[in-house]
Design goal:
Bound molecules: ligand F0G
Oligomer: single chain
Number of helices: 14
Number of strands: 10
Structural class: alpha/beta
Strand content: 5-15%
Strand order of the largest sheet: 1-2-10-7-8-9
Length: about 350
């Protein structure tokens, strides 16, 4: 076999990750995702003088940032002789666990809130051969069940309660620093179970200790109907269009608050309307199709700049956590329609007779 030039993130960041020569590396060449300038988002947020960048985590092998943590969690599970892995998920963790477990030849069970997972993510878990169980309950209930069976029957949990998940995910911060030459001034991102904001903060702090790369203000955003950290109490029945972050009692709640407080950042909430507006703006003006949940950080940026000043010249990174193709149903609720025409030139001319790009 030839060795490809690309490398997965364990190979790339080996010295900063808890692996040894005995760790079998299970990789799909994840990481190294694009950091794309977003001038239209900057303009929409009234930030003409600052630079906004989008970290396209949907470019990972299974289409979300979860692959960063999963390559490490599954590699360590194999090293430790796990018989199987289990997770509860709003969809992306499950898809990623299923793919990496398939590659490792490990049994994988995923617990999903019944009716609460986008179609693409469900298809991924099924295709990769996971044992898919729809739990009549919400994510928080499914997560409790998964951790109980993990203790009981020796499954390895690959939710972000697994420390290797956060270790892998922290590499996102290393990549941002490499791309910009320093840490950004602000990082905007969605918050669900609060693992990713915790992991990025770990990564930025580690990098700063090594090389004085600076520390961003961590700006986390929850959907208004699923905003336990903002409201200061768990939500029994979280509700939002953004199904990936429909979570009422986040596991890494305290650590997300620490990231917020130590970075002098903020955790706020945005409405589903604001989320969908950012989702459309990203797709139509920047050419970037992400999941509604991923657009939540961008909605947060736009909401924030209406109330607060950001110093001109700032560098702002928004983490777009998952690929828009994972959720084929939300676009159907948006005001964009395909037209069907007869197979004639006359009909085609008529159909194209307008002069502007649709908005
Ligand atoms: N964005 C997407 C697309 C997600 O799938 C998730 C979490 C988040 C943001 C929030 O990240 O939980 O680290 O704060 N998805 C989990 C899952 C819960 O099961 O796939 P977080």
């Amino acid at each position: 076999m030839t060795t490809p030039k690309q490398q997965g993130l364990i190979a790339r960041w080996r010295s900063r990750l808890p692996v040894t020569n005995r760790t079998p590396i299970i990789s799909l060449l994840e990481g190294d995702t694009p950091l794309v300038p977003a001038p239209k988002i900057a303009a929409a947020a009234g930030l003409g003088q600052s630079s906004v960048y989008l970290k396209i985590e949907g470019a990972n092998p299974t289409g979300s940032f979860k692959d960063r943590g999963m390559t490490l969690a599954i590699s360590k599970a194999v090293e430790e002789g796990a018989r199987g892995v289990i997770c509860a998920s709003t969809g992306n963790t499950a898809a990623s666990a299923a793919a990496y477990a398939a590659r490792a030849g490990l049994r994988c069970a995923v617990l999903l809130p019944a009716g609460g997972v986008a179609a693409g993510k469900l298809s991924q878990s099924l295709m990769h051969g996971a044992e898919v169980l729809a739990v009549r309950g919400n994510f928080d209930e499914a997560l409790k069940l998964a951790s109980l069976i993990a203790e009981d029957a020796g499954w390895t949990m690959v939710n972000s309660t697994n420390p290797y998940r956060l270790e892998g995910q922290k590499t996102g911060a290393f990549e941002v620093i490499n791309a910009l030459g320093r840490a950004p001034d602000y990082q905007f991102m969605p918050v669900g179970n609060a693992g990713n904001i915790t992991a990025y903060w770990m990564g930025y702090q580690e990098a700063h200790r090594r090389s004085k790369s600076g520390l961003p203000k961590m700006m986390g955003w929850q959907a208004a109907g699923a905003a336990p950290i903002v409201l200061g109490r768990p939500i029994k029945n979280p509700k939002t269009i953004a199904s990936a972050i429909r979570i009422g009692d986040p596991v890494s709640w305290k650590r997300a608050e620490q990231a917020r407080d130590r970075s002098k950042g903020h955790i706020g909430k945005v409405s589903d309307r604001e989320i969908l507006s950012a989702y459309r703006l990203l797709a139509r003006e920047e050419g970037v199709f992400c999941e509604p949940s991923s657009a939540t950080g961008v909605a947060g940026l736009i909401a924030w700049t209406k109330r607060k000043k950001i110093r001109p010249g700032s560098k702002i990174v928004c983490i777009l956590t998952g690929n828009g193709l994972k959720d084929p149903d939300t676009p159907k609720t948006q005001p964009y329609k395909m037209r069907t025409i007869p197979a004639t030139m006359a009909a085609l001319r008529r159909a194209l007779s307008g002069t502007r790009r649709g908005r």
